[in-house]
Design brief:
The chain is an alpha/beta fold and 76 residues long. It is built from 3 helices and 3 strands. It has a 3-stranded parallel β-sheet with strand order 2-1-3, with helices on both faces. Helix 2 packs parallel to helix 3.
């Protein structure tokens, strides 16, 4: 979604993620879909981030430290 300030949220099937999505109503939000990009596959994570090109990442999901690292590196 290049050109659009998208917020990527992980953990939308949890408790906090849906509340954050509701708080961002009216703003473009994309959820992390583990079926589309496994958090355990660094190449898939990078490809998903490149495809979504988020302006912000809210990482609320459980997962491996490597996944959190990939998301943090993107934000850096």
């Amino acid at each position: 979604m290049p050109g659009v300030a998208v917020t990527l949220i992980t953990g939308l099937s949890g408790t906090v993620g849906p509340a954050l999505r509701a708080a961002l109503a009216g703003r473009p939000v994309v959820g992390w879909d583990r079926a589309t990009a496994s958090p355990d596959d660094a190449a898939a994570v990078r490809a998903r981030l490149d495809a979504v090109d988020p302006a912000a990442v809210c990482h609320l999901a459980m997962g491996a430290e490597a996944w959190a690292g990939e998301l943090a590196a993107w934000c850096a």
